[in-house]
Amino acid sequence: MFLDELSPVFKELTGHPLEFLGGFFSGMLRLNLADDPVKNWLNQQTGTSSYSTTSADNHNGKSSGPQSISID
Question: N or C: which end of the chain has fewer CB within 10 A?
Fold first, then answer.
């Protein structure tokens, strides 16, 4: 029951303990991996830049600003 649901968590914890704990604590502290101090530290650890800082257009082709809708 409950242990069956937690088995993937324990599997990841035993397989990659440092990565798991790092991700767990960054989630608990609500750290954004794209923010400057964390991003610079990750880049130094891995030697590559794996996080994109460019903002993607999430407007779906619509203009920015408030949109009006009509409800019948």
Answer: C
